[in-house]
Amino acid sequence: AAYHSGEVDQIVGFVEELSPQLTDVLSDSDLVLSELLSLMDHDDGTYSHSINVATYTMLLARYLGIENHKHLCEIATGGLLHDLGKRHIDLELLNKPGKLDEHERKRIREHPQLGFQDMLPRGCLTWEQLMMIYQHHERFDGRGYPVGIPASEIHDLARVTTVADVFHALTSVRPYRTSMTTDEACAFLSDHSGKLFDPDMAKCWISKMTTGVCG
């Protein structure tokens, strides 16, 4: 994959491909910028994760055939705001190095609902953007949260966000574990395809990350 290969020409091409959408989102929306700054003020790690997930969601959307600039900007916005609800979670809990107890796990799992509740009354996001926030931890096998809905009820862009979110989480250093390599993360996506992830979206992402060919 271009982003992980370390080859300068590929990395430059990757950045040039996506930077216009991210630039437009950040410059055109005072709301997005203010919400991101609020998230950064609460937890820099979640802020950094959100920037990366926004990039990955746009990239996967492009691989899946979405080319409209406005739509890609909307997808970037959903990616940037997907973890907004975590600003309501205590920083000590977000960065706890050890295993979470049941109460702590339940509190963490409230963040999609909290983010959705923050943004819904504002009336400034599309329904698909709201679903990227609310449904990005729903699972393809129906065992996710906050509701545990079946795959047929999970919005397509929420499925995109799930792949992007997990891939970046796996390849990042976290307080409770070391990072995976790209190949290891792709193997995880493959092993959990049809369980955690939409199989077609996982396959597309894996193919791009490993061979540069979607399909």
Give a short synopsis of this structure.
The chain is an all-alpha fold and 215 residues long.
Global Rg: 16 Å
Largest sheet: none
Please count the beta strands (DSSP E, at least 2 residues each): 0
Q: What is the N-to-C order of secondary-structure elements (H for helix, E for strand)?
A: HHHHHHHHHHHH
| Secondary structural class | mainly alpha
Helix content: 55-70%
Question: Count of helices?
Answer: 12
The chain-level mean pLDDT equals 86
Which stretches are poorly predicted, pLDDT < 50 over at least 5 residues?
Answer: 1-8
N-to-C CA distance:
15 Å
Q: So what's the overall shape?
A: globular
Query: What portion of residues belong to β-strands?
Result: under 5%
Structure overview:
This protein has 215 residues and is mainly alpha-helical. The protein contains twelve helices and no strands. Helix 2 packs across helix 5 (69-81), helix 9 (127-134) crosses helix 10 (156-170) and helix 11 (182-191) runs antiparallel to helix 12. The longest helix is centred in the N-terminal third of the chain and has 21 residues, at 8-28. The model is unreliable at 1-8 (pLDDT under 50).
Q: In terms of topology, how is this protein built?
A:
Elements: H1 2-5, H2 8-28, H3 30-42, H4 44-63, H5 69-81, H6 91-94, H7 102-108, H8 111-119, H9 127-134, H10 156-170, H11 182-191, H12 199-210
